[in-house]
Design goal:
Layout: H1 8-23, H2 37-40, H3 54-71, H4 76-85, H5 102-117, E1 118-121, H6 168-174, H7 177-184, E2 199-202, H8 212-219, H9 221-224
Antiparallel strand pairs: 1-2
């Protein structure tokens, strides 16, 4: 499940077996299934039983591989896939040509989930576009909607002072109040090397690391319309 998309036929067969067990059906005695299996997979706070949705779990596992590509771009497997499928771009612009492998097509499906919860963690700000990058801790787009008062190609580094802290006066003057508040809430501790490189952060985890559990919660949003995010994540 962490390397391939499970075919729908296999998922339905497994879920049917689980449903028969749950409702007490046997080859001799069929029992009524009073709720759809998808409903039973909903979170308990939404009236479900919290059972695993295999499709969402499959996608969360595949997303873990994409996260490893982002965190370890110099690893052998990351370099092989980059050389073959996106030599002149990033993994976010990569596509799946008709000749691509089933593994790669599966990984791109996992990438769709990762893209919903990943954003930039600000280091020196040189790699992050103020208006085009996903870096503001406001789900689910993580992009600014404020009027573009800065240059269109401005980077987040222009919002930092020489000591690495946020330029509060500038931020509050060019961004909407709720976005300025979100930006200023991003930590800039004195112990942080403000000249460090920008890195990716998983918004759904307090420490900023991708976890299958948090990705799974994000993956079932489309099925349950339930907001899986904690009240605040700063990374």
């Amino acid at each position: 499940m962490s390397c391939f998309i499970l075919p729908d036929s296999i998922i339905k067969e497994i879920e049917a077996a689980c449903a028969r067990f749950w409702w007490g059906s046997t080859p001799e005695h069929r029992r009524v299934h009073w709720k759809k299996w998808r409903d039973l997979c909903s979170p308990k706070v939404m009236g479900g039983m919290g059972f695993k949705n295999l499709s969402a779990f499959n996608q969360a596992l595949l997303g873990k591989q994409i996260w490893r590509f982002l965190q370890r771009p110099t690893s052998l497997v990351a370099q092989v896939f980059k050389a073959k499928y996106f030599p002149d771009s990033s993994i976010w612009e990569a596509s799946a040509p008709s000749t691509s492998s089933y593994i790669w097509k599966s990984l791109l499906w996992g990438r769709n989930l990762v893209a919903k919860g990943v954003r930039w963690r600000v280091g020196n700000g040189n790699s992050i576009s103020v208006y085009n990058s996903r870096w503001v801790p406001i789900p689910w787009d993580f992009k600014l909607v404020s009027p573009r008062l800065l240059q269109h190609d401005a980077t987040v580094s222009c919002l930092l002072q020489e000591d690495g802290n946020w330029n509060k006066q500038l931020i509050t003057s060019v961004f909407l109040d709720f976005e300025a508040e979100a930006i200023l809430s991003l930590p800039r501790p004195s112990s942080l090397n403000h000249d460090s490189a920008d890195t990716y952060c998983w918004h759904m985890d307090k420490k900023g690391f991708y976890t299958v559990q948090s990705a799974y919660r994000l993956g079932i949003v489309e099925l349950t319309k339930y907001d899986p995010s904690p009240s605040r994540h700063l990374c």
